[in-house]
Amino acid sequence: MIGQTISHYKITEKLGEGGMGVVYKAEDTKLKRTVALKFLAAHLLNDEDTKERFRREAEAAAALSHSNIAVVYDIDECDGHSFIAMEFVEGLTVGEKVTERPLKLEEALDIAIQAAQGLQAAHERGVVHRDIKSANLMVTPQGQVKVMDFGLAQLAERSKLTETTTVLGTPSYMSPEQAVGDKTDRRTDLWSLGVVLYEMVTGRLPFEGERQEAVLYGITNQEPELVTALRAGLPMDLEWIVGKALAKNRDERYQHAEDLLVDLQTLKRKLDSGRSTLIGRRAAASDIGASQAPSSGRVGDLGHTVSELIPTRMPKRERLAWSLTAVVSAALLGVSLVHFQETPPEAPLRRYSLPLPAGLSPNLRPGGGFLSWSAVSPNGRHIAITAAGPGALWIQDFDQTPPRELAGTQGAGLPFWSPESDYIGFAAGNELKKVSVQGGPVIAICELPTFNGEGSWSPDGESIVFAAGRPRKLYEVAARGGQPSLLSLFEELEESPGGPIGQELTTQGAPHFLPIEAGNHVLIFMKQTLSSRTVDPPSIVVGDLETGRQELLVTGFHPIYSHTGHLVYTADQFGGDLWAVPFSLDTLSVTGEAFPIAQNTRNATVATDQTLVYVDIPESGPEHLVWLDRGGHKTGEIGQPHEAIGWPALSPDGKLLAFTFQARSNEDVWVYDIARETRTRLTSAEGTDMRPVWSPTSEDVGFTSNRAGNRDIYFRRADGSGQAQALLERDEFVYLTDWSKDGRYVLFMRADGISPATPADLWYLERDEGTSDWKPHQFSQSPFHERSAKLSPDGRYVAYVSNESGQNEVYVRPFPEGGRRSTVSSKGGTQAHWSRDGKELFYVEGVTLIAVPVSTGSKFSMGPAKRLFEHSSLAKTPSYPMYDVSADGRFVVVEAAEVTPDRSIHIVQNWYEEFRDREQD
User: Fold this and answer.
1) Cis omega before residue 814 (within 30°)?
2) How do strand 363-364 and strand 733-739 relate by DSSP bridges?
3) Residue 115: enclosing H or E segment and its boundaries?
4) Residues 54 and 108 in one domain
5) pLDDT of 133-150, one tens digit each?
6) Cβ neighbours of residue 375 closer than 8 Å, sequence gap 6 or more
7) Which of 65, 80, 838, 905 could bridge across to 793 with cysteines, CB 3.0–4.6 Å?
8) Pair (870, 722) in one structural domain
9) Residues 469-484: what's their mean pLDDT?
């Protein structure tokens, strides 16, 4: 038809062809302007009713006049062919722009805002598009957005619903009501614009499948993966906007384009002013079938469901491996195809999330919470994973499944790789060990001063530097094994003239060797100075083991080097924001500004091919207090959720519950009336008020506070009347731990500093009979850290925690005379607590609550220990109890009020591609 004149339009070239018909570029010979002619496919207008409905809608669209809507000029028919003449728009469709890579957030928001403005204008005139998709949004070279194809919606919708056997196309943008054939309205357009926004920022559609049936099933029955799970650095506001736009119930969706427009513009202003908040990347769904497999329930192209991949008659350990295989196989197939092809100079960004299956539980960090440990090999072909349960080391190869358990590695933690990726080093017990990536004998390298073992292999493969001890120090040992030596980089402790109160010490950790280009023995590590009064910010330092040179780089934890020319590190010791900063191997210095990569991360490692691997940790969300029975089953809830709750303590009469919760920089003590379900705030001073302890009458609450600079002891009436009164103020740090049942004694811990390495002793205050005067007495004195003292109900014995054996254990000693102690725990114990009747002593081992029957007569005796239940909140603190027990034997613990995402191993290939343009800007 090129060269022909249809009506008064001279056709000059063909622009495209599709299921709706053919589009030509033409010249309007009357008005001397360029137009686009869309000739509709004959089957779309096969009856007069359809033709008339089309004409009415096209006429309504022709009445629209807005800068973000492509104008409809004419509707006509020639030689039996119906066509529409519309504004010719030069540029690219959003679909064409997203084909290369996800759009920059600023560009995506600008496009969405302009599209919403166009829809708002149309909806105000009563016109609904019904076929918003990336191919119908044109972006001019000047950045102006034009919504195309108004007036064709009824035909497009009708066409899609009858094409039930074709490969997926525009059904991916259909709303749930369109998918089931319900009546549509303006909210349908807002859903589809939400799909386009999702596509622009992630580079993929929220609902995908090989056939349209699978797509429509996903639209009506499944939730899409969160945008923040697919791309780092997105603001939480965007996740909320997309989630609301894609609400399946249209009554919960945006009701008007204006509402969506306001939220998009607000987010854009926040970004422009730097006030937007990043959200951590999370697993999109606990059901892997909903998030990573097609909606048919099948994994990748394997043609089997997850349950089909797991043989039923198989030993438990083999089923564990197959369970992990079924979950990650689809993702790993994609990874392996990329890993073993040549990577172009600017390879595309690829992202995979591997949720840890239930059978491969996260490893437990001594004295801390649940953590999953993983490390990618330098060659980018394996991931080393440590797990709880048997506590073995597993290897996930990118080119095959299932994962492999390495025999003889029980108790492994903190894995790190040799430079050739042939060995994995790890800590187990008090030893540093190594094992071949292919398995085989486990080789002991050396003993550790204490369990820790954060390590790094030198680039020449000859030595290993690891951190261990309290405070942590850096040691070097030959990779073949031998006696470790303290590195000269470590600064020895020096006492200031003021004595132990003025003592300062330096702790070091997280060593990581730089590539050989930086020198033979150059590494980066974390360094922090602590004193009795302050804790300096953690510093990442570069050090040369041969020259002793040290240079401060940035503030942060756990540094690693990426061959993109960056240091990658976290902002918090136990996980948090993941940052990158440009770094030169030539000058061993930072060369630019740091920028965030992701949030809620831990254990980041980077292979030489720019594959970034890290572990996902849940966001800290609202918590609440719950009742558990002796089996760990929840029997009730107490009060309302708060952001961060700690130190629950039941009053002696069982009617009140004291606890702390943190808001912004303040941690305060509150009291909850269990029967009346009301709460009273006891403290509001700046700083930290913590560890509430009840008086024997249930009338007063004692607590530890730093309001005066030190840690001192105060008390206040439980009903909130009066002012807080100081019970003990000293130059040292003191922590209240218990109040005797007869009111005569108050137990506290006294330390010269806040470092765990500073010795702490047990003391008590004794009240003179008939007076309000209290006299301090020392109960224990040792070079160790003794804490968490709790009096037995009859006042005869004190249970406490000490690290004198090299790890925390629970001991019991007669009170007040002291004397011979009894060892209660043997495999690690913290948070000692007596039952109300004094017949049991509880303590925590890891995350397990253990009960020991006891007798507190003239001689202390114990029965066999019994493991009651596991609960993650029990690992929140290694010292003061994070639980309490009632007279009827129920337990109060802290629990997350909302289900948090499963921890995942995240794999990001060519991670820097996402930030290359941003950093260059």
Assistant:
1) no
2) unpaired
3) helix 105-124
4) no
5) 998 899 999 899 999 877
6) 383, 384, 415, 416, 417, 424, 603, 605, 613
7) 838
8) yes
9) 86
